[in-house]
Structures are given as C-alpha cells and as structure tokens.
Amino acid sequence: MTRRTALKTLALGAAAVGGGAAGYGFAIGRHELSITRATLGVPGLPAALAGLRIGLLTDIHRSIWVSHEDVSRAVSALMTERPDLIVLGGDYVSWGGQDRSYVGPSAEALAPLVAPQGVYGVLGNHDDDHAVPSALGRIGVQVLRDARTRLTIRGEALDLIGIRFWTKRGADIAAAARDAAPASILLAHDPRRLVEAAALGIPLVLSGHTHGGQVVLPLVGAIAAQKFPIVAGIGRQNQTTIFVSRGIGTVYVPMRINCPPEVAILTLQASA
Fold first, then answer.
1. 73-111: pLDDT as tens digits
2. Is 259 in contact with 246 (CB distance < 8 Å)?
3. Which of 163, 205, 226, 258 could form a disulfide with 167 if both were Cys (CB 3.0 to 4.6 A apart)?
4. Do residues 8 and 253 touch, judged by C-beta distance below 8 A?
5. Region 3-271: CATH code
C-alpha cells in the first residue's frame, strides 16, 4: 500500500467510523501548532558547540489547504525562540512540478526567517529543482543540493550536508559528505537516509517527510508512516542520532488527527 493510498484509506475510515474526529482533524487539528523543544545527544560534539540551538521547519506544503497564515504562525513561533541556526527540511509546496503558483507565496511566508548562523534548506519530493531553489535563494535561504557547507561557530567547524530527496545511493551521499568535519549534520528530507548516515559515521540527521503519520489513530497508530525507521521525534542507529519533525502542512488529505503541526527547537549536547 502506498503512502498516498494509506492516508486516503485512513481518512475515509475516520470519516466513516467517526465523522467528528475527521471534522476535528480538518477544522482544528491541522492548525493546532505545537512547539517541540528537544535536546539531541550528538556523539563527539565539540564542547564549544554544546548548547547550539537549531530551529527546524519542514513540510510546509503551501497550497489551497495550507494558508499563508498557517505558515506565518509557524515562522513567528520559530523566530520567538531565537535559534542560532535555522534548517528547512523540504516540501515547500505540494505538487510543485504541476502547480507552481504556490512557490512564490511559500517563500514569501518564510521570508522573515533569520538566524545568526544562517538559514539553510534542502529539497523534498514535492519540490522541483529550479523554481523552488530560486525562490528560496531570493529570500536568503541557502539550498544545499547534494552539497556541503562549513560553518565556524565559537571557533569550531560544523558541516551541513544537504541532499535532495531523490539522492539515495550511499555512494552519492558519501560524495557530498567527503572531507566533512567530525561535527556534521545530514539534512535529508527522508528519514530513511539514517541507514546511509549511520554507515558513513555522520553523527546527526535532521529530517521530515513523514508528517508524523498525519493521521494517527488509537490502537492502529500511524499506518501511512510505518515504512520509516522513525516516524517522529528522536531515534538512533549505531552512533548516529536522528530527529524527525512532524512538519507544518498536510498532503493528500487536509487533516491531522493526534498529530499536530510542529515547530522544532533542537539543542545539541555531547553524548557517548
């Protein structure tokens, strides 16, 4: 069963079994923004980088169902937290290859984002390779497309390695990560890239894509996201830590049930 089919099936089931839950998920659940503050243990993190705060926004999905106000609310919440660094995890629109009318509005809503160490983004499976990066570039977001950039923070090197959703081969990810500093973060829209990151010894991965399941039913859980190693929150494989955000928008069905949209504030700490 594909993710799209699963979400549609869940939505139909929710409507049939509990119209109230579906109605709540449409009218309220998808707008009930939450702020997640988490501390991530990063193996080998230099002492100077301990306490670094990263703001993560992902899966904006600006569309007829995700309004300017929805995105602006998330941006305002993030800016109130004053993170040191901001990361955007992809899927700025829905159906970017078919309807580009929301590319500009998505970037416009994100334009107030600023941070002392910059704002960086990667591309998701709904983003094209031209219009979206161009629009983000105009508002000062550096889009990493199978590329690495080095930041110097408090005298220590921190490398951001950004890959596109469609970059999946270990060799291609290794090429982007070549000569990376020991303190490195893989920005990957798809949390399944945890496998490759762990194999390469990259200590931290930041992802989205799952929407946290978007529709999470009691006893059943997040059926549409069962194929992912981590559906939401913190996970670990070998010496690699991952954080997966539930994201902001919705896709396929305009509702969220037991899975509110999320702004994530992540504080880095060293771990064994």
1. 999 999 999 999 999 999 999 985 556 899 999 999 999
2. yes
3. 163
4. yes
5. 3.60.21.10
d(CA 59, CA 55): 14
* Domain limits, the chain: 3-271
Name the DSSP class of 151: E
DSSP assignment, residue 47?
A: G
- pTM recorded for the entire structure: 0.92
Locus of tokens 């984002």: 113
> Are the C-beta atoms of residues 93 and 131 closer than 8 Å to each other?
no
Q: Is the pLDDT of residue 231 over 60?
A: yes
**Can you state the percent helix, strand and coil of the chain, rounding each to 5?**
30, 25, 40
Residue 219: the pLDDT is 78
Here the tokens at position 21 are 């839950």
Cβ atoms of 187 and 163 within 8 Å: the answer is yes
269 with 37: CB under 8 angstroms?
Answer: no
Q: Which amino acid is at 59?
A: D
Residues 6+ apart with CB under 8 A from 224: 3, 6, 7, 10, 213, 214, 215
Q: Which of 261, 259, 260, 249 has the alpha carbon at shortest distance from 216?
A: 259
162 is written with which tokens? 């950004």
Structure tokens at 253: 């069905």
